[in-house]
Amino acid sequence: MEGGCVYSDENNLSTLLMYKEINKEVIFYVKYNFLDFHIDYINIFDFEKIFPKNYIFILYNLPYTYDLDTTLKLWRNIAFNRMNYLNKYNINL
Questions:
Q1: Within-domain flag for 36
Q2: What is the pLDDT along the chain (93 residues), one digit of tens a residue?
Q3: Which of 12, 30, 37, 72 has the smallest set of CB atoms within 10 Å of its CB?
């Protein structure tokens, strides 16, 4: 299980959630919006509780390295490029 999605949170802020299952039932995730930047490891059952109801998938494959800085830089660049692509060509998902 891995991917990335955008959604409006409870404060009506655009939020980016990226995640990857790194071990059996352990998910590494990054949640980012204007006010919050959260990184954590969580089990699959708790992740289902925080996963948004209304979302738009933008990423389906994310690389993972055990160096946190490298992983965050890769994910940031992938998400940035994907959102720019979708905006440039006005693609509605």
A1: yes
A2: 899 999 998 888 899 999 999 998 899 999 999 899 999 999 999 998 888 888 999 999 999 998 999 999 999 999 999 988 888 877 665
A3: 12
Taking CA atoms, 17 is separated from 36, 89, in Å, by 11, 22
Q: State how many domains the chain has.
A: 1
Q: Which of 66, 60, 57, 65 is nearest to 92 (CA)?
A: 57
Q: Is 49 helix (H, G, I), strand (E, B) or coil?
A: helix
Would residue 14 count as lying in a domain? Answer: yes
Q: Report the residue count for the chain.
A: 93
DSSP SS3 for 5 = strand
Within 10 angstroms of residue 51's Cβ, the number of other Cβ atoms is: 14
Q: In 3-state terms, the chain is what percent helix, strand and coil (to 5)?
A: 30, 40, 30
Give burial (CB, 10 Å; 0-12/13-18/19+) of 78: middle
Owning domain of residue 20: 2-88
